[in-house]
Amino acid sequence: AEAGNNAGANAGDIAVKNVVVNNGTLTNGSQPNGGQQNGGQQNEGQQTGDQQNGEQQEQEQQQEQEQQQNQTRAEKRFGRDGRRRGGRRQRFQSRSPTPPPKSVGSNVRHVALGDLYFRTWYPSYYPEELVGREIEKLYVCQWCFKYCRDVMPFLAHRKLCYARDEPPPGQMIYLKNEYTIQEVDGEEDQLFCQNLSLFAKLFLDNKSVFFDVASFNYYLLVHNGPHNSISHPEQERRQIIGFFSKEKMSWDNNNLACILVFPPWQRRGLGKILMGISYELSRLEGRIGGPEKPLSELGRIGYLKFWQARVASTILTVRNKTALGVDEIAEACWMLAEDVISAIEGMGILGARRADGSLVVSKGRVREWVARNKIDLTPPVDEEGFAEDYLIEEE
After folding, report:
1. Cα 308 to the chain's mean position, in Å?
2. Rounded-to-integer distance, Cα 388 and Cα 224, Å
């Protein structure tokens, strides 16, 4: 870490190094800039390379146009919901995500999750032979996420559901207050994960794995109701209220593939728990990562708030330093440098530029930002909440 030697430095200020401003956009100055020229000179070999690159770019543009035309044909069935295939996974991506609660022509208009009834946001790929092409209401079991279109079979299933008096599948890895996190292997519990993913697609616009789940782990956010019984734990009211999925092997170091808090439990800050768990998993694995991109419109809003809180907490807790690099902040937060920059840019806390090129961040301005936006800097995840046997396995 580089420490500044500016004698006039204010103890309440800190210099963020390796950040440059290009056309009003922050970038990580520690990364090489391929657009720079050496002394403004280019040799003949470089010019020839530029011509070849230009021809290659034209070919790539033509290929992209053909791919877009093919994608447009594939999108006709579900309107704006496009389809992309990559590796063993199947995802969905919208070019301009539509925020809920506006409908985009969902094939399932409403869903009954146990005793709760609410509107869906997006189409899902439930089998037409079982659900139909369009349906007003779909009944979904709140324990195993099996589904049916008629109420009588649904009520009969609820009485006999194997998961009614059992804890959710998988291994409990985290416990804090009334919330637990269950890690579910998509290969071991394929049917459960497929049904969960089909249900989640009703509220996710841009991506969702729903059939080939074997290469993913699922992390369930479970709420344990207030009427738990010590003498009869099987009577505990457990409810899965959200989840995120994560690739078992991600070449891009993604710590999260898709994330969802079910609509009845949204706007309670529960998404921060799932995000916090994903970054704690990165820490346990010893690799800096982030969510799979591109993020949906709502996902980006949620992640920016989460990133900004982590960056603000890191800056405010720095001691005996007058300069801090973007990479240092990233390592302290276990975040990607590009996500750190997005957070700082959105906070609007950067001040004047110093002679060495670093930008001054006043801790006072950070505190004002925290107070103005009513940000809770308390970590959403307690490290002591992880199960000891899980920590041993990860180590």
Report:
1. 15
2. 20
With residue 305 as reference, give the H or E element that holds it: helix 297-316
Let me know the angle formed at the C-alpha of 317 by 316 and 318, rounded to the nearest 5 degrees: 95
Q: Would the CA dihedral through 63, 66, 70, 71 be positive or negative?
A: positive
The number of beta carbons lying within 10 Å of the beta carbon of residue 298 is 18
Read out DSSP for 122-140? S-----HHHH-SSEEEEEE
Cβ pair 203, 100 in contact under 8 A = yes
Supply the DSSP string of 170-195, one letter for each residue.
SEEEEEETTEEEEEEETTTTHHHHHH
* pLDDT per residue as tens digits for the range 112-152: 999 999 999 999 989 888 888 889 999 999 999 999 999 99
Q: 82: burial class by Cβ within 10 Å (0-12, 13-18, 19+)?
A: middle
Q: Are 86 and 169 in contact (CB under 8 A)?
A: no
**Alpha carbon distance 196, 4 (integer Å):** 52
Between CA 185 and CA 219 the distance in angstroms is 9
- Is the Cβ–Cβ distance between 222 and 181 less than 8 Å? yes
Tell me the torsion sign for CA atoms 101, 106, 112, 114: negative
- Residue 56, both tokens: 């290659």
pTM of the entire predicted model: 0.74
Instruction: Give the residue-averaged pLDDT of 181-209.
Output: 91
Q: Residue 236, Cα to own-chain centre: how many angstroms?
A: 30
Closest CA to 223 of 245, 240, 242: 240
Q: Which of 170, 388, 179 is nearest to 271 (CA)?
A: 179
Tokens encoding 134? 């369009």
Could you tell me if 83 and 71 are in contact, meaning their C-beta atoms sit under 8 angstroms apart?
A: yes
What is the pLDDT of the chain when averaged over all its residues?
78
- Where is 151: in which H helix or E strand? helix 151-160
pLDDT-based confidence at 52, cuts 50/70/90? low
The Cα diameter of the chain in Å comes to: 82
DSSP state of 103: -
Strand partners, 244: 219, 259
Task: Please say if 292 is a catalytic residue.
Answer: yes
Spatial separation of the C-alpha atoms in residues 327 and 19, rounded to whole Å: 10
**Catalytic: which of 247, 292, 328, 345?**
292
Report the alpha-carbon distance of residue 293 to residue 299 in Å, rounded. Answer: 10
Q: Tokens for 320?
A: 């005996």
Tell me the pairing of strands 13-17 and 323-325. Answer: parallel
